[in-house]
């Protein structure tokens, strides 16, 4: 792809909405913060011609992207590197992630998306199994109490995006997708992180308030789902010398 997004004031960094609080916090920093590794999971459900996607609305109290609808996800924690799990990463996802990280870290990035999905939506992506050790993390303790191991099956990487340097918080976010099957969407619930959590089709999502990154990744997801097979590499968005570019990785 390797093409720059149009370099004008509205699209220079590609953001739709930045609050005054965010601007103030960024101006107080002497330099752009280092991006933190993050993980996002896009869950789809239903037939191909009427897919529904799990999303929720960030609280207006958040100091980063308040009130907008997003996919479940968040930062990769240390516990993700040590959490017990079931099954292996797909060969493609493993290859792509290990182009950037060690095998343990690569797996941790995917496990973080499963953990965040549980924390933010109440949907536990696990398989019945006994955990042999405890992890000092509340969410993984929830899996243990439920007799479940986080299940890596069916999770594939389709994108990566680094928050532009003009934001006061930055993330190197990996985007994964998992299809739950042509079944009734499983029940979900609100959390402290996300409100109005629900399954939405593409038409409904078009009427929701989202950030540019979410809209961009939805477009990439559509291309990914329409392809006969997953591409060898993935979409990669990052700022290069002040201009947001769409690249390929690795």
Descriptive report:
The protein is α+β, with helices and mostly antiparallel strands and 250 residues long. The chain has a single domain, classed as Nucleoside Triphosphate Pyrophosphohydrolase (Alpha-Beta Complex), CATH 3.90.79. Helices cover 25% and strands 27% of the residues. The chain has six helices and twelve strands. Strands 1, 2, 3, 4, 5, 8, 9, 10, 11 and 12 form a ten-stranded mixed β-sheet that branches. Strands 6-7 form a two-stranded antiparallel sheet. Strand 11 (234-240) and strand 12 form a beta hairpin. The longest helix has 19 residues, at 103-121. The protein is globular, with a radius of gyration of 18 Å.
Number of domains: 1
Structural class: alpha+beta
**Rg estimate, integer Å:** 18 Å
Tell me about the largest β-sheet.
10 strands, mixed
Strand residues, percent:
25-35%
DSSP helical segment count: 6
Order of helices and strands: EHEEEEHHEHEEEEHHEE
What is the CATH architecture term?
Alpha-Beta Complex
What is the 3D form?
globular
CATH homology superfamily name = Nucleoside Triphosphate Pyrophosphohydrolase
- Poorly predicted ranges (pLDDT <50, ≥5 residues)? 1-16
Average of per-residue pLDDT values: 86
Distance between the termini: 13 Å
Would you state the CATH class? Alpha Beta
> What is the percent of helical residues?
10-25%
Q: What fold name goes in the CATH topology slot?
A: Nucleoside Triphosphate Pyrophosphohydrolase
Number of strands: 12
């Amino acid at each position: 792809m390797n093409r720059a997004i149009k370099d004008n004031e509205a699209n220079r960094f590609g953001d739709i909405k930045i609050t005054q609080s965010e601007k103030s916090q960024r101006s107080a920093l002497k330099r752009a913060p280092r991006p933190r590794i993050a993980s996002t999971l896009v869950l789809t459900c239903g037939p191909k011609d009427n897919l529904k996607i799990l999303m929720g609305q960030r609280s207006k109290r958040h100091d980063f992207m308040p009130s907008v609808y997003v996919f479940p996800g968040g930062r990769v924690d240390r516990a993700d590197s040590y959490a017990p799990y079931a099954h292996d990463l797909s060969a493609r996802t493993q290859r792509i992630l290990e182009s950037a990280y060690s095998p343990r870290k690569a797996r941790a990035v995917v496990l973080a998306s499963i953990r965040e999905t549980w924390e933010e939506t109440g949907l536990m992506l696990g398989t019945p199994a006994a955990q042999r050790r405890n992890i000092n993390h509340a969410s993984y303790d929830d899996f243990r109490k439920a007799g479940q191991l986080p299940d890596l099956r069916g999770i594939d990487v389709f994108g990566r995006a680094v928050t532009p340097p003009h934001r006061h918080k930055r993330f190197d976010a990996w985007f994964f997708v998992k299809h739950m099957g042509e079944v009734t969407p499983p029940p979900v619930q609100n959390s402290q992180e996300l409100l109005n959590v629900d399954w939405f089709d593409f038409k409904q999502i078009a009427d929701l308030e989202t950030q540019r990154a979410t809209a961009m990744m939805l477009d990439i997801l559509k291309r990914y789902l329409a392809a006969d097979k997953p591409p060898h590499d993935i979409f990669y968005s990052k700022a290069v010398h002040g201009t947001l570019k769409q690249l390929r990785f690795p």
